[in-house]
């Protein structure tokens, strides 16, 4: 995924979400635009699901 912030900063996030950290600490923003850049083919469904996204 690509994360784009209101301050112009962008960040690429891979499959291992828990290991992704912001290189410069906290990002102060009023919005986050999330763009799915790639998906992996599933064996059962033809869609992409996200169950939860947390911002702290």
Q: Proportion of β residues? A: 15-25%
The computed structural class is mainly beta
**What is the radius of gyration?**
13 Å
Helices, by number, come to: 0
Molecular shape: elongated
Largest sheet: 3 strands, antiparallel
Distance between the termini: 18 Å
Major β-sheet strand ordering: 2-1-3
List how many beta strands DSSP finds. 3
Secondary-structure element order, as H and E? EEE
Spans of at least 5 consecutive residues whose pLDDT stays below 50 are none
Helix content: under 10%
List keywords for this structure.
20% strand, 3-stranded antiparallel beta sheet, 0% helix, 56 residues
Could you explain how this protein is built, in words?
With 56 residues, the protein is mainly β. It has a domain at 2-35. The protein contains no helices and 3 strands. It has strands at 2-5, 10-12, 32-35. It has a 3-stranded antiparallel sheet, with no helix packed on it. Strand 1 and strand 2 form a beta hairpin. It starts with a strand and ends in a 21-residue tail after the last strand.
Brief digest:
The chain has 56 residues and is mostly beta strands. Helices cover 0% and strands 20% of the residues.
